[in-house]
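Dear U.,

For the methods section draft, I wanted the exact inputs and outputs in one place so we can describe them consistently. I've listed the two proteins in the order they'll appear in the manuscript figures. Please don't edit the token lines directly; just add comments below if something needs changing.

First protein:
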Amino acid sequence: MKPSVYLETSFLSYATGELNSDPRTRFRMDLSREWWSRKSNEYMLYVSDTVIFECQRGDLKQVERRMELIAQATPLVLTEGVNTLASLLRAPHLIPGNAANDALHIAFATFYNCQYLLTWNFRHILNSSLIPKIRSILKEQGYELPDICTPESLFD
């Protein structure tokens, strides 16, 4: 069975965005596109309602590109379990209320036992100071936090 990957919105945005001259942004875009073209078929791909909602906003051309990638992934259903986990992560000094969707991304990937959560969101998702706290909260609930990573981590 293929490993499972939850595709977070930032990854999809970098994989489909208009090419950018900023070196860091361009690097992330190039790496995301390369991973998609070379590696995505080696994984079971998943997205959530939250990803779909976020990807449907903005420039119509960009929306269309993101939705083409999303069409190749399996959508995950919002459940009470996902909501409960997300609520636990939206706590003071963890994931603030204005980043509720970031808590949902982690909750979806965790609840559905995805092995990886693929993201470029370093603020609230791939944040080394938050991950131990998030892992502890999820472990108390009987869940294991997926490996949160960038596409670079999923190359051989």
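Second protein (the one for the lower panel):
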Amino acid sequence: MNRQAIFNKVAAHLFVQGQQSRIDSGYCCYQHPDNPLLRCAIGCLMPSDGPLGFIGNVNRLAICHPGFLKGLGANTSYDLQFLRNLQRVHDSHPPRSWAQSLCKFAHKYNLSLPRIFKP
């Protein structure tokens, strides 16, 4: 997947989901343990039956997992930073501000806005 495809998939996922994937302790998680469809920005890119399973964001090693990066076609630290910044949209902003945050993200990385942003 190239960056545009990753961005499009994550943006569509976040818009449809409309809520953060958080566990009771308040931490964001890649995939919610009680609702596997509830996922964060990076979690929606991970296979639900993959080797990573449920990992809270306290352990950020999952993004660095070689199999995950290879599956996305991402290998460099620049790609890793791209994914981490995309993750911050989910983790650090309430859902009501995701559209604005995603627009800023797209501008920063010179990406086109997906159809969901257009009336």
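Candidate sentences for the figure legend, describing the second protein: Confidence is low (pLDDT under 50) at residues 51-61. The first helix runs from residue 3 to 17.

Thanks,
Y.
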